[in-house]
Specification:
The complex is a heterodimer. By secondary structure, chain A is α+β, with helices and mostly antiparallel strands. Chain A contains 3 helices and 9 strands. Chain A is about 20% helix and about 20% strand. The termini of chain A are far apart. The chains are: A alpha+beta, B mainly alpha.
């Protein structure tokens, strides 16, 4: 063991670096609970979990609105005529093939649905978040004569699959939430 | 007693350094009163805020009702709330004028860069403070404003998770309200207080600029002590300010909807958007920018750039003269256009969206960013620096 006044610069540098690194790890560890505590709590997650809806009450043409994650979700039983109307002039639509990622992969078809009969959409306009109105009467929405949705705020129009029409302020199609059918008459919204 | 204190606390020294022996150039004009006014308004926000907290209940169930109760049932509750609301607008009015003073006299240039940077930091913190506070009454605009602003973070990578993390829920809810309340009444006021202190420490260290934009000592401009020479003038400014401020508080607290939007008298409803979501006037320029850009991500980038440009100003403008009066006519026109574009954007941000308004907002944005770019170019062309 020697005792001298010489400063071992390299050793001192090493000690400073090591102290800084350990300190930084400590700060990160201490910050973890504070950051994690801001995430949705178990209660919040439970409140926003999947919603099960019994579809037996729906009649053709009817719209049912349920709440999922504080957002209105529409379930619409489309009639055969309405389904046929989806083949209207595709040039009227901004994204007829649903290229923009606004739906789960199983809804990326011309009906934008798992089961063509049931249209399931998040009823929030993609422009500034208003809630569009359901206008099923033929001729009320598209030039070629089908029904759909009209946003009361800035006049965005969507067809019976929630696809946005050209000339609307809304940039993209309405959002399709994740959902699956437990059986023919029961749908779970919020879960793939 | 005083001696006992003197030996233990440098009270005398603090008063000497900051008031009785703090030297200021004698040519300061009316543009130099806003710092003191801002301190006064912040004090008003703090005191009225503490009293509001005694009656306000930060839950989605009770927030709206507790504010109504404060307005109707608590003695002078209406006055406390109006002082707080009008105070917020007074704060931003004084702050914008205070910042314009910096632009007029080049007060952000060396050696005062840090004073400017801390000031812009304070501006951002106060924007956040105002934004968090706006959710608390839990009206329709409170709710949807918070919904729209928090959703801006979705453009960042991993944005959807970030938005949920900020809200603590999948949409703005009770959870968000409580955390906004905590940030509004504890976290941000403490940070703001700290930055105000640093702002003043840095200023008193380098000394105030003046309308000539020259070093007062070198140019032979006489210097006088802050107290009593400027404190007396500031008292006059405070009196004039209070007359205007209290006139608004007592006679037109909502300013025809500008300070309290009628749409916010409807309790928050997550399932129904109000027909128009208008921001507070002091944030309207940024809202106008956001709406003028067709792409959401680009819009948010513009927003960040608009604020970041302010931080860069001391290094963009390297002109050898500070004060606008000695600058080339080009710089004078440029500053006028910049101020007009900012006022224009504030107006446009409060209007409903039409193609003409979008075009106007785009022109204003061009001028806003053009100011910084042209200032950087102009100030590097030495010859036209002096008029």
């Amino acid at each position: 063991m020697h005792d001298s006044d010489d400063i071992d610069a390299a050793r001192r540098q090493f000690l400073i670096k090591a102290t800084c690194i350990v300190g930084a790890v400590g700060v990160a560890a201490a910050a973890t609970p504070f950051i994690a505590a801001l995430s949705p709590s178990a209660q919040t997650q439970a409140d926003n979990g999947p919603v099960t809806v019994d579809l037996r009450q729906l009649i053709p043409g009817q719209q049912l609105t349920v709440t999922w994650q504080s957002k209105p979700v529409w379930i619409i039983y489309r009639t055969a005529a309405e389904l046929a109307s989806l083949q209207h002039d595709q040039t009227e639509l901004r994204d007829p093939l649903s290229q923009v990622d606004q739906q789960p992969s199983y809804a990326k078809n011309s009906y934008r649905a798992r089961d063509p009969k049931y249209l399931i959409l998040v009823g929030v306009c993609t422009h500034l978040g208003c809630i569009p109105n359901y206008c099923p009467l033929p001729g009320s929405i598209t030039p070629s004569g089908a029904g759909g949705f009209l946003c009361p705020c800035h006049g965005s129009r969507f067809d019976m699959a929630g696809r946005v029409l050209k000339g609307s302020p809304a940039p993209i199609n309405l959002l399709v939430p994740p959902y699956h059918f437990v059986d023919a008459n029961t749908v779970v919204i919020g879960e793939d | 007693m005083i001696n006992w204190l003197k030996q233990r606390f440098p009270l005398e020294q603090i008063i000497r350094e900051n008031f009785t022996h703090y030297l200021l150039p004698k040519n300061l004009n009316i543009w130099y009163v806003f710092g003191v006014l801002l301190c006064l308004i912040l004090l008003n926000q703090l005191v009225t805020g503490i009293w509001l907290t005694m009656y306000y209940i930060p839950t989605a169930q009770q927030a709206f009702g507790s504010v109504q109760q404060l307005m109707r049932d608590v003695p002078y509750g209406w006055l406390l709330r109006y002082l707080h609301i009008v105070g917020a607008s007074a704060l931003f009015s004084a702050m914008y004028l205070h910042m314009l003073r910096g632009l007029l006299y080049g007060s952000y240039q060396a050696p005062r860069e840090l004073v400017w940077l801390i000031g812009i930091g304070l501006y951002l913190l106060l924007i956040a403070e105002a934004f968090f506070g706006y959710l608390l009454p839990w009206g329709q605009l409170s709710y949807w404003g918070a919904q729209v602003v928090t959703s801006l973070f979705s453009v960042l990578p991993g944005g959807e998770h970030l938005v949920t993390w900020i809200r603590g829920d999948y949409a703005i809810s009770d959870v968000s309200l409580r955390r906004f309340f905590a940030l509004h009444v504890i976290a941000l006021p403490l940070l703001i207080g700290m930055l105000v202190r640093w702002h003043i420490v840095a200023l008193h260290h380098v000394g105030a600029n003046n309308p000539e934009g020259v070093d007062a000592k070198q140019a032979g401009i006489a210097q006088v002590n802050f107290h009593p020479f400027y404190t007396l003038k500031d008292i006059l400014a405070v009196i004039v300010f209070l007359i205007i401020f209290l006139a608004v508080v007592f006679f037109t607290p909502s300013m025809a909807g500008l300070l309290i939007d009628p749409a916010n008298s409807v309790p928050a409803n997550p399932l129904q958007t109000p027909p128009e979501i208008t921001p507070m006037w002091y944030l309207a320029p940024f809202y106008a920018m956001l709406r003028a850009v067709p792409d959401k991500t680009l819009g948010v980038l513009c927003l960040i750039l608009a604020l970041a440009s302010l931080f860069l100003l001391p290094w963009l403008d390297v002109a050898s003269v500070r004060a606008i009066k000695y600058r080339h006519v080009f710089a004078k026109v440029l500053l006028c256009l910049f101020v007009l574009s900012f006022v224009g954007l504030s107006y446009l941000g409060l209007q409903s969206l039409t193609p003409n308004y979008i075009l106007a907002a785009r022109i204003c944005m061009g001028i806003y960013f053009g100011f910084f770019i042209l200032l950087a170019v102009y100030s590097r062309l030495g010859k036209i620096n002096r008029s």
